[in-house]
Amino acid sequence: MSAAQTIPTSESNPIHTISLFVNNKPGVLVRVSLVFSRRAFNIESLVVSPAAEGRFARMTITCSGNSGALEQMIKQLAKLVDVVHAVDHTRDDAYETEIALLKLDCAIDERTHILQISEHYKAKVVDYGTDSLILQVYGSSEKLDAFIDLLRPFQLVELVRSGKLLMARGRQLT
Amino acid sequence: MDQNLPTGGEKLVQCLEREGVEYIFGLSGGAVMPIFDALVDSKIKLILTRHEQGATHMADGYARSTGKPGVVLVTSGPGATNTVTGLLTALMDSAPIIVICGQQILPMLGKDAFQEADVTGITYPVVKHSYLIKEAEDVPRILREAFHLATTGRPGPVLIDLPKDIGQGPCAAPFSDELDLPGYEVPSRAEPDKIVEAARHLSRAKRPLLYVGHGAVIADAGKAVTTLAEKLRAPVVTTLLGKGAVDEMHPLHLGMMGMHGTAYANKAVADCDLIMSIGGRWDDRITGKLDEFCTDAIKIHIDIDPAEFSKIVVPDISILGDARLVIEDLIPQVEMADTAEWLDQCERWRKQFPLKYSKQGGLRAQYVLDRLNAITAGEAIFTTDVGQHQMWAAQFCKARSNRHWISSGGAGTMGFGWPAAIGAAFANPDKKVWAVVGDGGFQMTSMELATAQIHKLKAKCLIINNNFLGMIRQWQEMFYENRLSGADLEGNPDFVKLAQAYGVKAFRIKRSADTDRILEEAHAYDEGPCVVVAEVVKEDNVFPMIPAGGSVGEMLIEAPKHKLQKPTGST
Ligand SMILES: Cc1ncc(C[n+]2csc(CCOP(=O)(O)OP(=O)(O)O)c2C)c(N)n1
């Protein structure tokens, strides 16, 4: 997977990737999301999980909104008492990945075809039902987009995506 | 329960004592009873207000007049929601207040119990930070953090929501000086190379201008700014809230800038070749149309809040730090600039465009305020409400000392002036405190007359009664073809009788000729609060005026003869 992949975006509302290092406390998510909504930014995906030190948490957020307002938004995020630091990774060299789970209703005769596609994308079957399959796939968000699009014709009944996970390469701060 | 342990409420009150709190402004209710109970044995004086909004503005007036945090105590649900306006007011103007609310017991949270409101949720956008206390053990640490957050860096309001079961349950935790705030940094001194760079530009400028904002008041930077201005021989202008940081009678002071600032201040802003903001935030009331604001001037921005840099104006040099320390560091680095011609020009503007008002046709608010300025002789603390009277007070009442000018700037909160004066009067028993309010805004918190009266507080309230929501009428007259809509305050009470009904001494001014005598009598009145009602002409407008979103080029020095376009700025 190549670094710094970007999701296709519209000119006026490009997708931005931001990571936050925050106190792992109730209420932090609301404070963070208010900074976005007040500036009419739409959060596309949000991943929150404990950091290496459990009293802190990491948020990886992809959002779309006016690029001009981004710098101010990062500053306002950094200003929140519970935010230890806020970094804009939109143009950074960072390793990014995402996980998706797909449930397909499929008849026996469709399986071979589905499994061929899955193999190509290194997706794994994690549940084998008589007339359904659950697939797990990870990789860049674009790769997942492409994989999902290929499988849509086969009765894709459920889709769960993790949202983007990201880590800055080398000594740079995430 | 362990008999020897204090309750959470008692612990909280002990923490407040430990923080040096003298007064608490508030109003009780079921959920907050444990704390009110604990106050019975405390040396902290409880000031029972008539409305929770009043309590917040009193705490705010106390805070702005001292620099110390003001403390508010209210009950859950409606008690707490009544503080939202006060929180916004404090947040917008960076005033350190701490609002403590009672809350339902923990097991009832989220169950729509009686007087339960998600107060932390409701107030997220209007606080610097907030806490919902879930463990009695956290009380001491959270109280310490709240005071630290409210008063350091860019000050602001902090809310503490305290469930009743924690308030009345035991609290074993010892006092704490511990701060668990890993994301919170307080800038102090600036980077030395920024100082060097700024000093180089300041020394070189031909037409420098120092723009003093509320941050200079908060940092007590005024003396240093005065020294810097004298050394550079640079004129000084202030924002509405920057008033008082630098003595407005100082010869280099050009008064207030912005929408209703003096014409000479605004001309200087438009013509300077360097503008340095000292704790100002380039508010839209200051800059007007951004594309035309100081286009050719070098812009230096000093602020303690890094989020202010490039929020509105992209500065050439941004200096992160405490305004006083930054200016003190700058002083030895700057050289006297060659500004003689510039100062002459500013003096010519001062002579050419003085503040003026008609002396004919009845009692004028400007005259009353001009006289109040003379009679108070630069000694009084002024608070104001919001509207025309606020702008006239800002123009005519010269603030000569830091923290002697208190007004709701960022939020423009009607109802602020009178309770803020009460808070300032509690904090400054030796000073004369004058609230200048409009008849509209006064009625939003006039019930606090009772609060002032029971404490025989020497706060004075000057009501500029024009029987209109005057500023609204002015805008409708100027920009909406005088189609008045909801501007007439028909139904006003007789304010003298209203004050008397509370047992408050009241005066009325009807004629210019009586103004001095009555103001002097009220100024000398020392037995308690008093109200002066000035029955001013009903229809008068504030000038100069730069229509919202306009540039200095569009400044109206007096009533325009031509029809005006609706302003492009939002408000
Ligand atoms: C709480 C609140 N409501 C509405 C406004 C909008 N507003 C700004 S000035 C003003 C008129 C104020 O009238 P008054 O208090 O009589 O003062 P005047 O302008 O006549 O001096 C109004 C309604 C406001 N600032 N605050």
Helix-strand blueprint:
The complex is a heterodimer of chains A (174) and B (571).
Chain A: E1 15-23, H1 28-38, E2 42-50, E3 56-64, H2 67-79, E4 83-88, E5 94-105, H3 108-120, E6 124-128, E7 132-139, H4 141-151, E8 156-161, E9 165-168
Antiparallel strand pairs in A: 1-3, 1-4, 2-3, 5-7, 5-8, 5-9, 6-7
Chain B: H1 8-18, E1 23-27, H2 33-39, E2 45-48, H3 52-66, E3 70-74, H4 78-81, H5 84-92, E4 97-103, H6 119-123, E5 129-132, H7 139-151, E6 158-163, H8 164-168, H9 192-204, E7 208-212, H10 214-218, H11 222-232, E8 236-238, E9 253-256, H12 263-271, E10 274-278, H13 284-287, E11 298-303, E12 317-320, H14 323-330, H15 340-352, H16 365-376, E13 381-384, H17 388-396, E14 405-406, H18 417-427, E15 433-438, H19 439-445, H20 449-454, E16 459-465, H21 470-479, H22 495-501, E17 505-509, H23 515-524, E18 530-535
Parallel strand pairs in B: 1-2, 1-3, 3-4, 4-6, 5-6, 7-8, 7-10, 8-9, 10-11, 11-12, 13-14, 13-15, 15-16, 16-18, 17-18
The complex binds thiamine diphosphate.
Q: Using only CA atoms, what is the Rg of chain A?
A: 18 Å
Strand order of the largest sheet of chain B: 2-1-3-4-6-5
Structural class of chain B: alpha/beta
SSE series of chain A: EHEEHEEHEEHEE
The biggest beta sheet of chain A is recorded as: 5 strands, antiparallel
Mean pLDDT of chain B: 96
Task: Tell me, briefly, the overall form of chain B.
Answer: globular
Helix content of chain B: 25-40%
Distance between the termini of chain A: 19 Å
Low-pLDDT sequence parts of chain A = 1-9
Largest sheet descriptor of chain B:
6 strands, parallel
Distance between the termini of chain B: 57 Å
Helical segment count of chain A = 4
Strand segment tally of chain B:
18
The overall strand count of chain A is: 9
Keywords for this entry:
heterodimer; A: 174 residues; alpha+beta; 5-stranded antiparallel sheet; 4-stranded antiparallel sheet; 9 strands; B: 571 residues; alpha/beta; 6-stranded parallel sheet; 18 strands; binds thiamine diphosphate
